[in-house]
């Protein structure tokens, strides 16, 4: 059942994804994130160079069932990341834990930033659900969630920009298993 305007603003991402029927695409464009649910695993990775690939830890127990459920319903989930090279330590970490995204059912590609210069991109990372609903993510300069870190819109122009940007990045992107950091 489609969400009304009030539900759009108050629904959790899990509820939005449950209302998604065809596609869920995510574009990430930062070289550093510092969100709290990754802090311990990221610090351990920096110390040891070994990623924690236990799906029962960190944020994975919440994320993996959402993705698996959406994929089981026929939703195609794709994630693309635009990254500077050489990559940051955070991107090395993110690359190292991406097998969990793949295990959940996402497809992931990486695009070196130098190959994105001519792509019209929105100013923020986003999720685009069924090509119609955009959830923009707002971060602080250090990569943590900003106050009111999520903004949602069903504006057709915003959705079209995000769709075009994502598909262009996706076409140029390197599949995860072929991208080395």
From TrEMBL:
Pfam families: DUF6879
Domain DUF6879 positions: 12-180
Lineage: superkingdom: Bacteria
Cited InterPro entries: DUF6879 (IPR049244)
Name of this protein: DUF6879 domain-containing protein
Organism (species): Streptomyces chryseus
């Amino acid at each position: 059942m489609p969400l009304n305007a009030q539900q759009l603003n108050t629904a959790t991402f899990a509820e939005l994804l449950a209302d998604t029927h065809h596609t869920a695409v995510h574009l990430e464009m930062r070289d550093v994130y510092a969100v709290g649910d990754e802090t311990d695993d990221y610090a351990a990775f920096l110390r040891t160079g070994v990623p924690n690939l236990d799906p029962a830890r960190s944020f994975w127990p919440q994320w993996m069932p959402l993705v698996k459920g959406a994929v089981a319903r026929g939703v195609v989930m794709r994630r693309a990341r635009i990254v500077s090279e050489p990559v940051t330590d955070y991107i090395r970490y993110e690359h190292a834990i991406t097998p969990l995204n793949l295990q959940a059912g996402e497809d992931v590609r990486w695009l070196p930033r130098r190959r994105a210069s001519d792509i019209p991109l929105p100013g923020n990372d986003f999720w685009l659900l069924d090509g119609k609903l955009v959830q923009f993510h707002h971060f602080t300069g250090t990569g943590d969630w900003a106050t009111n870190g999520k903004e949602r819109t069903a504006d057709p122009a915003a959705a079209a920009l995000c769709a075009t940007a994502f598909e262009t990045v996706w076409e140029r992107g390197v599949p995860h298993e072929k991208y080395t950091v």
